[in-house]
């Protein structure tokens, strides 16, 4: 194990590269073993039970807990040492987001503990140990990420690489377990609704993992069993966010950074009223649509078809608005001449890769729906709305990805230091000079030329002098004042245009942020027309299409939450 790294050298970089490769391979094998164990439990493989899967996950969490405690203890003993920090990693809003999801995850764990107590007569002890271990793991991990997400580790690098990558893949396996459990629940509900829609030719076999004994308290059991599945979406988002933050920490191990001042970009509601209003309207209407959809779907064939039609029409309208907003933002970028920041930044690179990678889940489902509509022999009326919906999903993600990736790579606008020192001096006819607001106020659009007054920029000299003796001097000063005034008006108009562009971009980012939150809600809480439409299942077959949906849907759900987080950052940065 290496102590604090000294000067970089060819000999020193080789073992570090090997450590990176070895740790990544360790993590992948850890994940694949857990993935196969999860799959074996899902398909009821002989000799594999849920207790085996939970035992594996508990072991991984305990190992991560030991590593985090060791790291925290070592950090406390070295708290006086100055450590390098990645200012782009672990933003405060990201930490607040993961804390919110973690709190709801703790509620989920408490529900699981209550569920185990009620069914303790026929459940394995691991089902009681797992939520307790998971709750402790969640609390310590959130604390760890709050304190050390920005760290650039320069000591014990080989050991730390294995510890961090172990944590990354532990969270990915917990995410996979949550996705599978929630998907199995959704699938059972979907199978029960298929007969209502008239697809009686599909064999309905419920995949039931319910306990084989009676509950001690019927009411509490019902609350726990139903409540667990409404909380799973937050648990899923918590683990995927934790794994991404830990991955950035892993990529930063041993990294050399340039020390420069990082300007804080706090979120402000000022200037984004229009975007927030339209976004809140979309969010409110989406929640209403989801509630009606979940109530109506499966009640009868007519009600189910009306629910699907209502969902498609609302989604088409929202996606069309998002496409329009994204195109306007890209057109504004084309009118600006600003360079891109191509410096090495693991957090930004990961954001871009996740946007494109997870969008593939939605694209897969959309192309499947388009192909099913083209190839199907019979088309119920409500299925035709699926065609524009699927096309818009593809186009909207194209546009939004381009907007977000370009936004996070654009250099923040810098104001010239010489201009910052300028002051505005107004010349009143026959009066002395007076100072007016600083450049900062002019730049922010809070000051401007008043009637009867002309702004003038000075560079270490006075615009004009009172001279009662020389006509020529007065004439030359008048010409100078006119030249200064013309340049000042041009300067003010340019900054006014810049402020208007920035205001439009901030409103677009705020609108898209709320729209992505809105589109995250339906699939996360069981409003999934890809299940209930039925047309794709006829064309591709029930089991193949369900496999495609179960594989692609988690990525589609994560895309919306990740896009919302990225757009929040764009809004702060613009």
Automatic annotation (TrEMBL):
- Give the bilayer topology: Multi-pass membrane protein
Q: Which GO terms fall under biological process for this protein? A: inner ear morphogenesis
Q: Which residues cross the membrane?
A: 26-47, 53-72, 93-117, 129-146, 229-250, 271-295, 311-333, 354-379, 504-526, 538-559
Q: Looking at the UniProt record for this protein, which Gene Ontology cellular component terms does it annotate, in alphabetical order?
A: plasma membrane
User: Which keywords belong to this entry?
Assistant: Cell membrane, Hydrogen ion transport, Ion channel, Ion transport, Membrane, Transmembrane, Transmembrane helix, Transport
UniProt key word RNA-binding: no
Read off the Pfam families from this record.
Otopetrin (PF03189)
Location of the protein in the cell: Cell membrane
Q: Which InterPro entries match?
A: Otopetrin (IPR004878)
GO-annotated molecular function: proton channel activity
| Family, similarity comment | Belongs to the otopetrin family.
Q: What's the protein name? A: OTOP1 protein
State the organism of origin.
Cepphus grylle
**GN (gene name):** Otop1
């Amino acid at each position: 194990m290496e102590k604090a790294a000294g000067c970089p050298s060819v000999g020193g970089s080789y073992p570090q590269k090997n450590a990176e490769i070895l740790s990544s391979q360790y993590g992948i094998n850890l994940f694949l073993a857990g993935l196969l164990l999860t799959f074996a439990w899902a398909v009821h493989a002989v000799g594999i039970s849920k207790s085996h899967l939970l035992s594996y996950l508990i072991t991984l969490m305990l190992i991560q807990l030991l590593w985090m405690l060791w790291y925290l203890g070592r950090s406390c003993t070295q708290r006086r040492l100055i450590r390098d920090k990645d200012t782009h990693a672990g933003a405060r809003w990201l930490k607040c987001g993961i804390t919110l999801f973690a709190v709801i995850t703790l509620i989920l764990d408490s529900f699981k503990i209550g569920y185990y107590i009620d069914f303790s007569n026929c459940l394995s002890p691991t089902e009681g140990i797992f939520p307790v271990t998971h709750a402790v793991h969640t609390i310590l991990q959130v604390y760890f990420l709050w304190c050390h997400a920005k760290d650039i580790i320069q000591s014990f690098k080989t050991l730390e690489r294995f510890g961090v990558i172990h944590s990354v893949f532990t969270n990915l396996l917990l995410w996979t377990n949550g996705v599978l459990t929630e998907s199995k629940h959704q699938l059972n509900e979907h199978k029960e609704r298929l007969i209502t829609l008239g697809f009686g030719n599909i064999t309905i076999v419920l995949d039931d993992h319910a306990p084989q004994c009676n509950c001690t308290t019927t009411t509490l059991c019902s609350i726990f069993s139903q409540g667990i599945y409404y909380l799973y979406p937050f648990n899923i988002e918590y683990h995927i966010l934790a794994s991404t933050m830990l991955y950035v920490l892993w990529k930063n191990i041993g990294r050399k950074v340039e020390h420069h001042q990082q300007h804080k970009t706090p979120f402000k509601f000022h200037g984004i009223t229009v975007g927030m209003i339209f976004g809140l309207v979309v969010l409110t209407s989406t929640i209403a649509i989801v509630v009606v959809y979940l109530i109506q779907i499966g009640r009868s064939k007519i009600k189910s078809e009306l629910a699907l039609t209502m969902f498609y029409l609302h989604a088409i309208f929202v996606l069309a608005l998002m496409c329009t907003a994204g195109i306007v933002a890209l057109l504004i970028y084309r009118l600006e001449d600003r360079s891109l920041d191509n410096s090495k930044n693991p957090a930004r690179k990961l954001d871009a890769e996740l946007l494109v990678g997870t969008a593939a889940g939605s694209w897969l489902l959309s192309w499947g729906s388009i192909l099913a509509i083209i190839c199907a022999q019979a088309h119920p009326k409500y299925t035709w709305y699926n065609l524009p919906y699927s096309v818009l999903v593809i186009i909207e993600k194209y546009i939004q990805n381009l907007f977000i990736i370009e936004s996070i790579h654009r250099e923040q606008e810098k104001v010239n230091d010489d201009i910052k020192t300028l002051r505005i001096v107004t010349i009143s006819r026959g009066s002395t000079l007076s100072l007016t607001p600083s450049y900062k106020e002019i730049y922010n659009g809070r000051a401007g030329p008043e009637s009867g007054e002309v702004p003038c920029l000075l560079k270490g000299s006075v615009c004009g002098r009172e001279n009662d003796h020389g006509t020529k001097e007065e004439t030359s000063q008048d010409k100078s004042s006119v030249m200064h005034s013309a340049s000042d008006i041009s300067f003010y108009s340019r900054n006014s245009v810049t402020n208007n562009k920035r205001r439009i971009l901030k409103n677009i980012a705020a609108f898209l942020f709320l729209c992505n939150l809105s589109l995250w809600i339906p699939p996360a809480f069981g409003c999934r027309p890809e299940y209930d439409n039925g047309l794709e299942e006829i064309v591709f077959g029930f089991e193949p299409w369900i496999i495609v949906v179960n594989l692609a849907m988690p990525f589609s759900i994560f895309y919306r939450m990740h896009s919302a987080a990225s757009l929040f950052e764009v809004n702060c940065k613009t």
